């Protein structure tokens, strides 16, 4: 392609880009909404019947967004509002929107014609106004008649003139999040409620109360928003009742839940919550009667439902906060979480109320919603913590049960072995010794060739006798002679005995035993126990293996560590150590460690084993140390 062509293409791209950037701005400039921040007001006396707009020259008061006239003077039932709208020919279908105003009955006139009418037969005075207006090249006056029965009336937000479609979207979107959040919470709580069937009884009540808390707050979110009153106009009265009912269910559920967190530690709170629940039922009945009788006796109902209930709610909030802090001080984490949630909730509500009164009741409360969300979140955390703690407890129980079962089985086995050993071993050992003696005698008299056979026979007899010794030790581990032992010296002598055997297997044995550490026990039994361990280590190492014997004092215990860098064991094998006949060796008996465990147990010691397959094994044995003042000079003998 030629350079000129390239330039053409580039120019085209630049043109398109500039169009993309400029077009939206152009269209915006054309569509920019008109914001009207001031209007005029004329009060309508109680006895006025005419709904024809007053004359333009009458007595009009100025009002604006900063200073809207909303406090209704006595003897008045509402107001006329006059809004001057500039030319609207920019739009094909212009509209007019007031995001927030108070009033039950709205009528809009323009050029003497009725443009819009809406009437509420329920007492929710937070309202919005949206209507299409004629497109005109001249400014026009719009008269809005607002009637109410409450103590406030009129516009509190700016007036917006824009494309009707756009305004409709804005009309809905502004209040939609609240409704959506409310609906999601309510639906979620209903699902949670269905799931409650799967819980255990103890958790179910907390769970259900939490579901009720969620359901009622969700409902409060929905029916506090002005949207449903506009779109579900016919159900306005029902939604107002729903608001009260939600509140009367929410408070007792919340109290019940909080009492669960306190674990019934404050009995007067339990009483208080029962009384409060009773009063909520009274309120529900009063509401029912009030609605059923066509809203008669307003003063009495107002006293029961609003004044007293309001006072109770206001009173209990600081009470709960104080109690939660008191309990949290004692280390109850749930109470701590609860008090943080409650304090934040109370704080946000307080700020909300202050702003409400400070703004002459124009301010729309919204911080409480965050407060509720935080409080609800804290309640969910608490429940989750409780359920998980319950499961953790269950888990430990079952673990303990398993361990207990295991040890029971073990004891049972041990008992059988020890009975068997006691009855047989002793009887067998004597004949064996006699046989050994005669074999040795015979060996001296025989020729050189047969001597090796006698040697083999004697060795095998020794092996048999070793096994029987193990059995006997196991059957009768009681130590007749208990002496004060110098553990360091004992270990040194064991090291000396075993060193040649370790060397024969290609390893080294290191013994670190400094200082004097005294324990009570029997020297030969202790040696037997420890030698069994060292023997296993020697059998587990290969060339280059290192076996370490160490002893240190830790607080009031002497800690012996016997470690090797041999083949190690799997965890399942470690768990089986000490069980009779557990052996992985072809020539093993599986009695060595069983005996070791028994001796250490009798010497009031404990034993723990750490092993990693392929890396090595460590046996840690702890004996109670004998305090220095109990050691008399000359009493120690090894
Ligand atoms: P035996 O030595 O007759 O097999 P023990 O009761 O002395 O019986 O040991 C039981 C089993 O424990 C051994 O067969 C071996 O598998 C395992 N074991 C004990 N000590 C060690 C160790 N230091 N390293 C590896 N395995 C060991
Ligand atoms: Mg062994």
Give an overview in words.
The structure is a single chain. With 638 residues, this protein is α+β, with helices and mostly antiparallel strands. The protein folds into five domains: 1-32; 36-173, Jelly Rolls; 176-397, Rhopdopsin 7-helix transmembrane proteins; 401-475, Helix Hairpins (Orthogonal Bundle); 482-637, 2-Layer Sandwich (Heat Shock Protein 90), CATH 3.30.565.10. The chain contains 15 helices and 18 strands. The strands form four sheets. The protein has a six-stranded antiparallel beta sheet with strand order 3-2-4-9-6-7, with no helix packed on it. Strands 1, 5, 8, 10 and 11 form a five-stranded antiparallel beta sheet that branches. The protein has a five-stranded mixed beta sheet with strand order 13-15-16-18-17, covered by helices on one side. It is elongated. Adenosine-5'-diphosphate binds next to helix 13 and helix 15. The site of magnesium ion has 4 residues, from helix 13.
